[in-house]
Amino acid sequence: MAENGWTFKSGEGVVKDTVNGVKNLYQLYTAAKADYSGRVTVPILWDKKTKTIVSNESSEIIRMFNSAFDGIGASAEDYYPRNLQGKIKKLNTLIYNTVNNGVYKAGFATTQQAYESAIAPLFETLDWLESHLAKHRYLIGDQITEADWRLFTTLVRFDPVYYGHFKCNLRRVADYPNLSGYVRDLYQQKGISSTVNMEHIKRHYYGSHETINPTRIVPLGPTIDYSLPHNRSNIK
User: With a threshold of 0.85, does the pTM exceed it?
Assistant: First the structure.
């Protein structure tokens, strides 16, 4: 992210816009709607045929990707099976409100009361997840679902970013044996590690939130090896 928001600026690990050739993400928003003046956010799902944005809501996009492209070569795994949808929705609601969004509510709080009101349920849920994952390999038994991937994106960023930058520092994920093993388990699933660029993650958070980190100094640590054994294969 730069002065004009999200960019496709050249750099290590950066994927250029090979479809439209734009340099800044806002150009896709204005290409879809010339007078657009709202927030420019990621992710977005772009339709090359109609040349417009299908969605910019991550929860919608992940659901679309689960099945919309099965007939044209996408992975056949179903992360939102019909028989588990009720449980997945319940977990998604809890985890989004207290963890996924909870770290942001804590990080962007401008009063002590607002900060503490976010921190308490965040760590209550992390504590519950630690206990739950002692008996279940994944959130719902031995099957990876949408709920796991939605939680993973926050947990993999927690110690490098949210613990310090967002003041979520009661405990690290590394302090939870089951949660930390669970993150490594998901990270080691086929095709996942290549999607996690910790340098990009840290540079974005520490470099773009000027009110939280006015110096924009990016910390060198922590050193986390997500390739270490997760020791969760025997948990059902």
Answer: yes
